[in-house]
Amino acid sequence: MKTLLxxxxxxxxxxxxxxxxxIPGPVPYHAFCRSMWLFATPCAAISSAxxxxxxxxxxxxxxxxxxYNLVSVTPLAILANxxxxxxxxxxxxxxxxxxxxxxxxxxxxxxxQSIAFTSLLDNGLNYCNLYNILSASGLSAQPDFMEMTNxxxxxxxxxxxxx
Length: 163
Fold this sequence. Notes:
TATA-Binding Protein; 6 strands; about 160 residues; six-stranded antiparallel sheet; 3 helices; globular; about 25% strand
């Protein structure tokens, strides 16, 4: 039954709210990635895990080449920044949390966008910004985890080689 509910929740989410479908917005000159993640876990737990991981990857905690900075946290959203180790690229990250009525879980709209004018094809940098936090938090290994994105919503997604 749970196996059937997750795909149904995904379809319902896509059909009921066009604003949450990961479609590129009106910012054509910046590389970006938009992804939707679905969990059967409540949003509070997902938000807490992502927040803890961003803090763990911040330069303050001695992560070396990890340059994530937590900007703000609310019950419905997390905002953060990522800067490359050489300081040449910077991106804004946002995670918006929406409870899923059908599964009792959480839908996360994850976004990463380059701040400066850059090539639209970023070889998956913006995707990896999001995925590295997700993966390091252990959330991507949950059996109820589903991700939705593609090359239209996440430029360079097919070229991404996240470490």
